[in-house]
């Protein structure tokens, strides 16, 4: 929201804005999440004059960058940028007159906006999302929201929340020689191995460490296997629920995929 302009007259020295991105990139309230989703190499903190005409559109007084990596998670980045923002704000207040004299007008042609996200954005679409896409979405909302999918147990549909995951190194051996004969979303396990291995539509894979069946208690991968899974690779997670009395439809690869013209996989 943009505050009423009349508030400006309440502060003799004006108002400053602390924002967790390098403006004018990612204006809005979900800048950190959007930076991770867009796979940005870096983000940062900006101190600017508060704008009463445009969200995050005031003159830039100071900025400090922060490099992201392939495992950066929202809660971690939020904490780090909060500390950086506090330190930068202290510096800005100490040198406010100088910074205002050298303030930079934002280049509107470079402005991007971070939209609000909802639980629908947390849904995994197995027919479209690569392993990197799924992991990036998990990281972007870690500590705030959780990615989820559908898991069918007999005739009941359950929302399955994926609490912890990672993308394994390519040289980590597959759990099964039949791994890629199964549809994306299938769950593989081995005795005493602390993760579930799941193929994705791009040929990549994710490892799941902790899961939560909605309405129940969180479980480690081993606990989930002991409680629900009987055969490795036999069950798969779904994008959408299936009517209770109907058979789970075979997996359909998207148009253009190398396996799109072959028989669908159960």
From TrEMBL:
GO molecular function annotations of the record: methionyl-tRNA formyltransferase activity
Domain Formyl transferase C-terminal: 119-228
Annotated Gene Ontology cellular component terms: mitochondrion
InterPro entries reported in the protein's UniProt record: Formyl_trans_C, Formyl_transf_N, Formyl_transf_N_sf, Formyl_transferase-like_C_sf
Ranges where the record places region Disordered: 246-266
Origin superkingdom: Eukaryota
SUPFAM superfamilies for this protein: FMT C-terminal domain-like, Formyltransferase
Domain Formyl transferase N-terminal: 2-79
Database matches in Pfam families: Formyl_trans_C, Formyl_trans_N
Entries under PANTHER family matching the protein: METHIONYL-TRNA FORMYLTRANSFERASE, METHIONYL-TRNA FORMYLTRANSFERASE, MITOCHONDRIAL
The name this protein goes by in its record: Methionyl-tRNA formyltransferase
Natural source organism: Coemansia guatemalensis
């Amino acid at each position: 929201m943009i505050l009423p302009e009349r508030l400006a007259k309440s502060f003799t020295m004006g108002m400053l804005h602390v924002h967790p991105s390098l403006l004018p990139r990612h204006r809005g309230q979900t800048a950190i999440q959007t930076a991770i989703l867009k796979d940005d190499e870096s983000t940062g903190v900006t101190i600017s004059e508060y704008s009463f005409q445009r969200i995050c559109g005031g003159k830039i007084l100071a900025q400090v960058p922060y490099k992201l990596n392939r495992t950066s998670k929202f809660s971690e980045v939020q904490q780090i940028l909060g500390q950086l923002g506090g330190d930068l704000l202290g510096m800005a207040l100490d040198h406010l007159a100088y910074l205002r004299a050298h303030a930079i007008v934002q280049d509107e042609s470079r402005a991007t906006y971070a939209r609000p996200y909802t639980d629908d954005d947390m849904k995994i679409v197995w027919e479209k999302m690569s392993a990197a896409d799924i992991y990036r979405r998990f990281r972007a909302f870690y500590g705030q929201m959780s990615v989820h999918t559908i898991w069918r147990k007999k005739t009941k549909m359950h929302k399955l929340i994926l609490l912890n995951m990672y993308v394994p190194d390519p040289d980590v051996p597959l759990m099964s020689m039949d791994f890629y004969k199964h549809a994306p979303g299938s769950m593989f396990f081995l005795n005493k191995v602390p993760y579930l291995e799941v193929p994705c539509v791009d040929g990549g894979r994710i490892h799941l460490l902790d899961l939560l069946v909605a309405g129940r208690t969180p479980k480690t991968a081993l606990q989930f296997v002991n409680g629900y899974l009987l055969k490795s690779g036999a069950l798969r997670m779904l994008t959408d629920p299936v009517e209770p009395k109907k058979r789970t439809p075979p997996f359909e690869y998207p148009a253009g995929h190398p396996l799109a013209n072959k028989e669908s996989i159960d």
